[in-house]
Design brief:
Order of helices and strands: EHHEEHHHEEHEEEEHEEE
Largest sheet: 9 strands, antiparallel
Structural class: alpha+beta
Helix content: 25-40%
Shape: elongated
């Protein structure tokens, strides 16, 4: 069936994808050629790759990341359509959160003071925490939070220890598309447990903090970034000085909560005036 194979240039013409994109998809294992000449490295593709390339282009057009596209295209039966629907629900939720963040940014840019009535204060007791730390950008933050949480919980299980409060992340630097933190994910515990590998143990000092609660619909990256800014502005307007880095507190219902359920807090420790 050698005569049925086409070159990468012919595949590009048939799908309107660039050579660069086709090579990227091939290198990622998303669109492997049917045959690669071991001497020249020339890639050739069969009819199945043409259809797969068309579907990749379709899913990329709606913004789906390559890793998820691979899962969608390789899933059997009705799963691809279900995965697409789930992805789009997440995008719609993120769009709603970004819209709220745009409203906050508009208030700031026009010189008006955004409403800060929801920001409150509380005392936080000293606590021992397991932690793991890494430099991450916004694109890598969700995976880091998920993998670090599982790593810390697994260590607690292995040592017979228990959580004494919600998981939280300390942002020792700004996380954005251009800035990589660092970020420290912490799991509080009252039990005797030691460090292991990339997991450390430290004491989180007692402090007073200003905080803003967030629902699931407000927990997208843009909306959370706006909330960090709002709490920081609240402190500045009152003449308070930060005593430690910003943090996000994640409650156990994060994965199962409805859009209007409280799932997280944005908090900033401070020294009262």
């Amino acid at each position: 069936m050698q005569e049925d194979l086409i070159t990468i240039g012919e595949l590009a013409a048939a799908t309107r994808l660039s050579l660069k994109a086709l090579r990227l998809y091939g290198d990622r294992g998303l669109l492997p050629p049917a045959r690669t000449d071991p001497r020249t490295g020339i890639r050739r593709y069969g009819p199945a790759q043409v259809e797969r390339a068309r579907r990749i282009a379709l899913l990329r057009a709606i913004g789906m990341p390559l890793a998820l596209i691979a899962t969608v295209l390789d899933s059997p039966g009705a799963e691809p359509a279900a995965l697409l629907a789930a992805y789009w629900r997440e995008q719609e939720s993120a769009h709603t959160a970004r819209r709220d963040a745009v409203g906050y940014a508009r208030e700031v840019l026009t010189g008006r003071s955004p409403s800060m009535d929801e920001i409150a204060e509380r005392e936080v007791a000293e606590q021992k925490v397991l932690f793991t730390r890494r430099h991450v950008t916004a694109a890598n933050l969700p995976d880091f939070l998920a993998s670090s949480t599982e790593l810390l919980l697994a260590h607690l299980r292995e040592t017979g220890a228990c959580l004494s409060g919600p998981i939280f992340a300390v942002f020792d630097g700004l996380v954005s598309e251009d800035s990589d933190g660092p970020v420290e994910v912490c799991a509080p515990t009252h039990d005797a447990v030691g460090p292991a590998g990339q997991i450390g143990v430290r004491i989180e000092p007692a402090h007073r903090e200003a905080y803003l609660t967030r629902t699931k619909s407000q927990a997208g990256f843009a909306a959370m970034a706006a909330a960090h800014d709002a709490v920081g502005t609240w402190l500045t307007l009152r003449g308070y000085a930060r005593s430690a880095s910003n943090r996000e507190v994640y409650y156990p219902n994060w994965a199962t909560a409805g859009p209007d359920e409280h799932v997280a807090d944005i908090a900033v420790p401070f020294h009262p005036a």
